[in-house]
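Lab meeting notes turned into a lecture example. A postdoc, R.K., suggested we walk through two folding results consecutively so the class can see how the record format repeats. The first protein's sequence and structure tokens come next.
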Amino acid sequence: MEDSYLSEEDKNDPVKERYELALARIGEIQEESICPEKVQAYFRDMAAFVLLVNKAWHMVESGTLRRMTLEELQDLNRELYADILPDKYGRSYGNPDYAADRLGEPIGQMLAFLCAELRGMIPAAFEQNRLGMVIRMELLLEIYQAFVCAAQESGEGDGAGAESGAERAEPRPETIRQILYWYVSDYYEPESMERTAQLLCPDRDFAVRIVMESDLTDLRYLYYYGEYVTDNELRTARHLNELSEDEIKLMADTYTEGYRIGFEVGNKDISVKKTVNIRYALGFERMIRRSVDNFDRMGLKPTIYRAGANIFQGRTVDKNGFFGANPNKQFDYDHREDQALVLDKLMTERKLECMRGAYERYKAEAAVFGGPAVVEIFGEKPFVPETKKTACRLSDRQQKLSVEYAAKAGAMQNEYIPGEERSFTIIAFPIPDIGARYEEIFDDIVRINTLDYKLYQGIQQKLIDALDMGMTVRVKGCGANRTDMRIQLHALHDPAKETNFENCVADVNIPVGEVFTSPVLRGTGGILHVTRVFLNGLEYKDLWMEFKDGMVADYGCANFSEEEENRKYIRDNVLFHHDTLPIGEFAVGTNTTAYVAARRYGIEDKMPILIAEKTGPHFAVGDTCYSHAENVRVYNPDGKEIIAKDNEVSLLRDTDVNKAYFQCHTDITIPYDELGEISVLTEAGEQIFIIQNGQFVLDGCGELNKAFGDLR
């Protein structure tokens, strides 16, 4: 075995010693036949994977990885992720259906979780995080030993591996569940500490060094992260390499200026901040490098962490951090609720305790953290998940615990990183999967991201002036769209100095193009309906929601044949296990240029919500846009103060902060071609029309209709 001999220095490193001992024992599993053959085959498979990741560890440690050819790196990358790729997933132990079929329930379900958790070793190997490797290797061995002991106690552990007439004994499911439980409980503290450090501390610079020190014209650098790499990432990097310095500067400047202006518009002091968290997809390094330089001139150092890939960080289809290609979205969807195996009240308290300890440890760093700057991607093939009964699912009690945890964790984060002191920005670009006209679409999106914000600012002010004359807003669909919503607005006590709507141009949400408000919940209601929409990476067909006094009262969609599956799909992925959510935002999107571009290229179904929300009116369920920053006074360019920052739920922060926030905000947009009417009803009974039959009809807004001419 490579490096099995420990030096005196290594012998004094308990983690290194644990690593070597665990590795040696795992190496023996492949030669053993102690357990029933189906079970033994599973553990041989897991052992082989661990040995493969260990090989990658040594390639990184020795510098061999940097000397490999592109073809060699691609072979290694494919080998690391082969087991869960769609063409192999039907016979992967990471697939809960296959694991349950081969190994039985509920054992198969738990061993599918173990398979998924072992994949967390890939990031650990590339980041040279030895503890991250060790704890997963030891988890494998502890569970394997439970099966070995059960087989030996059955009197059949003779090593022959042959099946007898009687079924061999297995450990009780509760024994395996307890091993998983204490694994999560024991290691939540160091994992939470490291994740918090990655968010707040610039010295955790694994990704920063790749961005800033690599030769970005040598695309081998994409394989140094340990993320899955496909033609998308390679073509994206090649395309950015083909752009001129001026074009890269324009992209980076739009992104970083949006971040800076977000502080300015939000009346927050960026000068006291020292760090910015950069999130991006592989392939955009040339833009990110320029952005790091821009942020440096603002006095901000970057922190960059990897998107979650284990039970401690969570596994979701929608990635948050730096990330490569998703090897298999169904795999992530199948394991999104793996915490169901361990979640109880004590575990919830343990997680909060560890989170508190991490924030206390990095309290000074939290105080100077500015917030995230996000580069999103779009254009991936639409994903419609398969719901599997063998996948872990949170019970009703666990869903309540999950909601309680999210509320308390959000409040704790706000305690250390106050919302009224931080900001963010988000920008989006297409990837090659979007189609044959990728380069053309990319250039058009750059143009959309850099539209003349002064032009939009003026037009949007006319919209706001009309909207501020109203008590309620009416939104109605047309054709197949059944939307019929009435939105109650806050009363303006001094209309000369106050406004309900924010004039949103290119700052935190790039591109330009919306005016938004936080409605009064009482009196807000009706039906919201869209024929097709993508939210957080998932497709919804005929999504509808009914609202009463601003709260979700009922909902459904047409994704699945069974109504209950449709309701669970929405509850899990839009309501995030809450029984109900308020309308946190109502907005009128004005970016007709983006709408027309999407129609012209036939990519409406691939547009990210960041752009899609600007292409029609939208409603957000969850927190308001001013979550945790309601007390900061914010003004529009015309000098009027925005007073509609709260609703009846967010105001509960003064009495019970855990009931005021939901840690989610999901925008649902009605496209112009499904829109029959947006109108304002004044106190005097006058009806002012903003949009009719998908066209802006308010005086001074005709410029927005010009883009529609390109569709004729």
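The second example is placed directly after the first for contrast:
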Amino acid sequence: MEINKFEEMEVKEEIKKAIKKMGYEEATPIQAKAIPTVLEGKDFIGIAQTGTGKTCAFGIPVINKIDTFSDNVQALILCPTRELVIQTCEELVSLSHYTEGVKIVPIYGGQQIERQITALKRKPQIIIGTPGRIMDHMRRKTIKLNTIDMLVLDEADEMLNMGFREDLDVILANSDKERQTILFSATMSSAILNITKKYQKKDAVKLEIEHKSLTAPKIKQFMIRIQENKKLEVLTRIIDSEEIKLSLIFCNTKRKVDELVENLRFRGYQIEALHGDMRQSQRDTVMKKFRTNKLNILVATDVAARGIDVEDIEVVFNYDIPADEEYYVHRIGRTGRAGKEGKSISFVTPKEMYKARDIQRYTNATMDEYEIPSNKDVNDKKYIKLFSDAIKLFEENDLSEEIKIIEGYLENIEISVMDLASGLVKLALKDSITNLKDLVLKDEDFTRKDRGDSSRPDRTRLFMTIGKLDDLTRNTLKDYIIEETGIDRSDIHDAEVLDKFSFVTLSNEAAKVVLAKLNNTKYGERKLCIEESTKSSESRPKSNFRSNSGSGDRSNFRSNSGSGDRSNFRSSRRPGDRSNFRSKE
């Protein structure tokens, strides 16, 4: 029988405590099946989409089985991208929060390899990495896999799509043959089947989670196509006109959360922030106020919002579209609980339309266009509230003194009671009456190409002398630029990574910053040259650019998986065909 409650699973109490701190209570279907199976030591094949909780499905048993008194590498987790490596590392660090002695090291391209070598010298028990960079360390003999007990292939289909098959063969063939192998994939292709037959035990347990809509049917999903600088006004219009009692607003960054909270407080809303920079005691206080309706709006980041379980949240606002579809599912799942109906409203700028389309494909659901309340709708609600509050005040209090004051005042002036009341209403609402036009973008603003249109006058396309042979992907290139220059991710509209060079399309101002800060610097051991792209630069001979990312050839990699000697590695695929290993990451 499957165990769905983490509290009932046979894992260490320290891990249960960490899971509770992370806000998880009930296991997803794949977690309920995978965790007990992996804990038993069996090989496992999980076919499931992103968003089904795969990281905890292997992360919990990995942490549970680690011998913290050993300095050997006991678990290797392979991921296709830098982003997934970082995300997985963060999840495992959280799971091991109360387990002393667990050391985890992330290994990926784009980070200085010397820094990774230093981290590996600290004897981690768990390594999380991309295949290309793991191969680099195998070549340098800074990682040895003959001691690992568990090997996890996360998003195996994506690794194959990115061209890592040969790297996976070398890594798997040269790791301990008695290891436990756990594989997760969104699809069960013939290539994945080949890997499972070749590298997993015959009694491997397979589980396939059917991918349907991952969102609750009682949640009505809407989108508003809007300019970035109009979001605040639209948000306040909706809150005011719909008289929302309890709402949750998501932003992608802590800075954005703080800015939005400050702006809404200035407008008189009862509101608090919830993000990772807050102490646990502060977060507990905020959540207590939210649950007891002492505040009606909570603005949060994705990580901080984990564990929010409040039944009466009426609306979830995606003030920023999340970068990952899984986050969207988690976000809107905070409403429509306990059989109640809920609503999600996502603000979508032109350059985020492709994300909105990806989310709709992922959830098998449609975001309907949300009709923004008009000025009249919003103002009528404010008048009604003012009058209702006044009537309630009259019914519950003795206002005879105030009546005398008004009567005495009217004796000395030539206006009616109606004139005076009109003036008082105007005075009471003068700072809150809405009068803003053109909130929504026109259709033609969304018909142009959403990203990568370098022909637009507000964008610049740059040519860069680094590429796939430097362990770059589109995402790692973007991350590298952001980390080194401080520009915003939204300023990067497209990136194209070829073997020996790349192109990136940025806003004009961001392009100037990138040129000023990165041109003629070094990427690893390579000199990085950047220039504005022209037709001639896009057609220049590829032979002019060479990658030094590996700083040495891979001719020493020879596979000898069949013998006991692991000092050399040789590919069993085609003899002599891999005299130079290239990282395709």
